[in-house]
Amino acid sequence: MHASKRQLHLNLFIMGNGHHEAAWRMEGCRPRDVTKADYYAGLLRTAEQGKLDSLFLADSYALPPTIRYKVLQSLEPFTLLSALAMGTSRIGLIGTASTTYSHPYHVARQFASLDFISEGRAAWNIVTSTNDATAYNFAGERLPDHSERYLRAEEFVDVVRRLWDSWEDEAILADQDQGIYADPERIHAILHSGEHFSVRGPLNLPRPPQGQPVRVQAGASETGKEFAAKLAEVVFTAQNSMADGQLFYADVKARLAKYGRSPEELKILPGFCAIIGDTEAEAKEREVELHRHIQLDYGLHRLSNLFQTDMSAFPLDEPVPVEFLSRQAEVNGHRGRYALYVELARREKLTVRELIRQTASSRGHYSMAGTPVQIADEMEKWWREGAADGFNVMPPYLPAGLEQFVGKVVPELQNRGVFRGEYEGTTLREHYGLLRPANRYGKAGLTVSG
Amino acid sequence: MHASKRQLHLNLFIMGNGHHEAAWRMEGCRPRDVTKADYYAGLLRTAEQGKLDSLFLADSYALPPTIRYKVLQSLEPFTLLSALAMGTSRIGLIGTASTTYSHPYHVARQFASLDFISEGRAAWNIVTSTNDATAYNFAGERLPDHSERYLRAEEFVDVVRRLWDSWEDEAILADQDQGIYADPERIHAILHSGEHFSVRGPLNLPRPPQGQPVRVQAGASETGKEFAAKLAEVVFTAQNSMADGQLFYADVKARLAKYGRSPEELKILPGFCAIIGDTEAEAKEREVELHRHIQLDYGLHRLSNLFQTDMSAFPLDEPVPVEFLSRQAEVNGHRGRYALYVELARREKLTVRELIRQTASSRGHYSMAGTPVQIADEMEKWWREGAADGFNVMPPYLPAGLEQFVGKVVPELQNRGVFRGEYEGTTLREHYGLLRPANRYGKAGLTVSG
Ligand SMILES: Cc1cc2nc3c(=O)[nH]c(=O)nc-3n(C[C@H](O)[C@H](O)[C@H](O)COP(=O)(O)O)c2cc1C
Ligand SMILES: Cc1cc2nc3c(=O)[nH]c(=O)nc-3n(C[C@H](O)[C@H](O)[C@H](O)COP(=O)(O)O)c2cc1C
After folding, report:
1. Of B81, B125, B127, best ligand 2 pocket probe by most atoms within 8 Å of the beta carbon
2. Of B309, B343, B359, which one is at a domain's C-terminal end?
3. Is there a contact between A204 and B180 if contact means CB atoms under 8 Å apart?
4. Got the DSSP string for B220-265?
5. What's the domain of life for this entry (chains A, B) (predicted)?
6. Shortest-distance ligand to the CA of residue A150
7. Cα–Cα dist A92/A118, whole Å
């Protein structure tokens, strides 16, 4: 597995009726579907036909203030992913849980359970929460600051991983004759007592099929990238251009060595929003059609939120006030995207209106409109030239945008031999070419399976 | 619905390979199945063929100290019930969540999400946690005391219900032309700031299909019964005999009036463990076969745990030390079952060995071995004579015990006209004949649907 030839990885990232903020207003998109499990099940069947590695559900624990203008993101990830596990057999299932407003025992257990239900397809997108609205649903006060959140996250992840290891792989004997279900000597209390948590363990579930569900992260700050290098196995990132992607890729991969890790142990997947047409003209028309549905006041809301500044105070058709925003840069929250937008506006000399439009399809992720060949070309280039190990595929509108991607771009990538034509393994670790981790409590060698 | 003729309700309560603690050692029971979703899916298909009202999964957040002797109870409830929602269309799904070691925003959201996924079949078994092992996985110290736990539970339930109401039923407009997804004036912050929680709201999901998922509880103490009368819609209970059941039933129903509630607004479901044979002799043989697999040291563990006393210090074949145990009665924990066991031992003058045997099938719940007609007779009697509105059906071994119940006892109850031959509604509220609650924020009348 580990030694086989390098392949591109494709993760499907879905939100509401698609990533373009106005997608839900398009013909063929059904805003009332976003609370229905069958809607997601249909998308996932398509993704599995396309042999995609995984599905990702982002999450936060607060209602966005822009709910007037934009459909809900999705249902709750643990419940929805578990439901989706049942109609599928291969595709990985990546859920989000925040280390700031959850407890490690619940998180360890729900991911372990999802890993059992899906027979080895669970992954955890580790986030620290970025908005005060979430904080007010849990704590009655604002978010802890950025570095404090990351300290807590490290302890949290450590506890969760030890809980996943708390049963050795061979702990269950299920010996009906002798009446021994499990060997208590192979089940370990973790006896954690730290700055933020006190957790005795063991987990009340056996070690999950993957040993440990896969760890995903999307840190963009210095602290975030260091965290990824130390603890993540997959990194999501938003990059405006291949050049930016190359810088990020080199940066994060270079950090691995100091943790004794090799570059293949961490996969970097930038977001990629493709507006697909059989001809370039058709693709551009679709883009115009999407942009036509944008609501300016929503765009202003969104930017104001991100920048923590009332953006309606600035003229729509004059340049984004990048100097003012840069001075404010020490905002406690979504650092990554904040800097990305300011940089984009500076480089392309965008007006406020243009920034709204340019970020409407993909919130700062790379976005292009083109033919399947053009899109496959761009993906292959990023992948060959050190900007990506694969992509977070972000259909701008659903379900059609996904059907076009799976029906037209995937075969193009398969024909080029850079993407699998069939699943080779059954677990998400196998799709990504990640080793099943040894159990820290187990006898060395016994629990590693390639 | 509300006015139609009174019917018996049947909830399926499953644990591991069945409720008898030695079930997993029987031929036909597969201990390795308890971590597989397909195993539960198969059981649920059988239950739905039997038109049962619901499935119940009990839960705690700690590994039982007796894992050597007995299979795991199940996977994690939110993930497992969501998976099970997908292969079924009618049966209700009751999950357990503790108000002592969870947060109301997560609980409100996961049940709301399950209610969407199942299209109106979710219910919450509200528990306060009863063992210190759970406490040590969350808090590094022992359980808060009983009354403190119930105070926290009241506040918790109140917050959860307000979150479920935080979107009015008509809040989603999904107006693609105007670009209005939801009407912010119909979505309400709950602004809760209480003794235990500070939660601003609103929930980040619309009001669930049932308005509010059904509330289930199993209080046995004075405080617990008062809580049930005030807040529960379904009550589980363990009763040794019909006479005890009648006392409990009358007691709890009589408490409703002071909260302005009528007796039909709360359904009482005692546990019922049936060992079924085509002849009485066959049923008794099955019981002997089950008991043959009991492990004495497991039984001692179990009793020691419940009584928080080392029971191996007492001779196996001498009477249970009921006086000693009664003096200890102020144990901070499982009060209900503690008292039940002491009472059973006192009344039936049981030795320690006999108490182990008598409680092995159903942990204090009513248990009988008999023919389908005898079992239906007993159930009908409890139901007609004021001991029950229905039952928590507890198959002693799985899957065969459930197949026998659905194949033989259910048709007997249907023939007598006391149990439905077909589902009449689609939601769990409809199965139980419980009204869909009006939204406290909505316009009166609009949100009530029979
Ligand atoms: C593709 C992608 C998905 C993300 N998903 C979430 C999410 O679901 N929930 C969340 O709170 N943050 C999410 N984030 C934010 C990141 O977790 C992270 O906080 C952000 O990139 C800023 O980096 P920093 O934490 O190092 O400052 C996501 C970021 C990216 C690029
Ligand atoms: C059928 C039944 C199921 C129960 N399920 C759970 C459970 O899943 N988790 C839990 O912590 N307690 C459970 N309990 C315990 C009750 O919630 C309650 O704590 C117990 O009956 C003692 O009552 P009290 O809390 O009023 O003292 C259950 C009790 C019964 C009778």
Report:
1. B127
2. B359
3. no
4. -SHHHHHHHHHH-SEEEE--SSHHHHHHHHHHHHHTTGGGT--GGG
5. Bacteria
6. 1
7. 8
The answer to whether the beta carbons of residues B204 and A63 sit under 8 Å apart is: yes
Q: Is A304 helix (H, G, I), strand (E, B) or coil?
A: helix
List pLDDT tens digits, range B149-164: 999 999 999 999 999 9
Map tokens 């957790």 to a residue. Answer: A199
Q: Does A353 touch chain B (CB under 8 A)?
A: no
| pLDDT computed for residue A332 by the predictor | 52
Q: Tell me: is residue B221 an annotated ligand-binding position.
A: yes
Which residues fall within 8 angstroms of residue A50, CB to CB, at 6 or more apart? A10, A405, A406, A410
The answer to whether A34 faces chain B, any CB pair under 8 Å, is no
pLDDT of the residue at A330: 61
Q: DSSP states of A44-73 as a string?
A: HHHHHHTT-SEEE----SS--TTTTTS---
CATH number, residue B138: 3.20.20.30
Contacts of residue B143 in chain A, CB cutoff 8 Å? Answer: none
pLDDT tens-digit readout, A153-173 = 999 999 999 999 999 999 999
Tokens of A152: 């807590």
* Residue A444 exposed, middle or buried by CB count within 10 Å (0-12, 13-18, 19+): exposed
State yes or no: cis peptide before A399, omega within 30 of 0: yes
Task: Please state, in angstroms and rounded to a whole number, the distance separating the CA atoms of residues A213 and A109.
Answer: 11
Q: Using CA atoms, how far apart are residues B352 and B409, in angstroms rounded to an integer?
A: 33
Residue B12 dihedral angles phi and psi, to the nearest 5°:
-90, 120
Q: Is residue B288 part of a domain?
A: no
Regarding whether B79 and B223 lie in a shared domain, the answer is yes
Q: Which residue among A14, A78, A98, A130 is best mutated to probe the pocket of ligand 1, counting the most ligand atoms within 8 A of its Cβ?
A: A130
Q: How far apart are CA A230 and CA A149, in angstroms?
A: 16
Atom number of ligand 1 nearest to Cα A126: 17
Answer yes or no: is A331 within a domain.
Answer: yes
The token pair at A236 is 């999501």
Asked whether residue B48 falls in the same domain as residue B182, the answer is yes
Chain A positions in Cβ-Cβ contact with residue B24 (cut-off 8 Å): 174, 176, 181
Helix axes A242-254, A372-384, angle to 10 degrees: 30
Question: Do A197 and A322 belong to one domain?
Answer: no
Q: Name the token pair of A86.
A: 């049942």
DSSP 8-state class, residue A433: T
In a domain, A423, yes or no: yes
Would you say residue B67 lies in a domain? yes
Which atom of ligand 2 is the closest one to the Cα of B217?
17
Query: Per-residue pLDDT averaged across B396-404, rounded?
Result: 98
* Dist. CA B328 → ligand 2 center (Å): 20
Which secondary-structure segment (H or E) carries A368?
A: strand A366-370
Which H/E stretch holds residue A391?
strand A390-393
Handedness of CA B223, B224, B225, B226 (dihedral sign): positive
Task: Write out the residue range of the structural domain in which residue B400 sits.
Answer: 3-282+362-432
Tell me if A150 is assigned to a ligand binding site. yes
Beta strands in B256-410 (DSSP E): 267-276, 366-370, 390-393
Q: Is A127 in the pocket of ligand 1 (CB under 6 A)?
A: yes
Pair (B75, B224) in one structural domain: yes
Contacts of B109 in chain A (CB under 8 A): 61, 76
The arithmetic mean of pLDDT across residues A186-202, rounded, is 97
Same domain? For B98 and B40 the reply is yes
Residue at which a domain ends, from A344, A359, A374: A359
Q: Count of domains in chain B?
A: 2
DSSP designation for B122: E
Do A227 and A126 lie in one domain? The reply is yes
B30 with B160, same domain: the answer is yes
Question: Are A96 and A135 within one domain?
Answer: yes
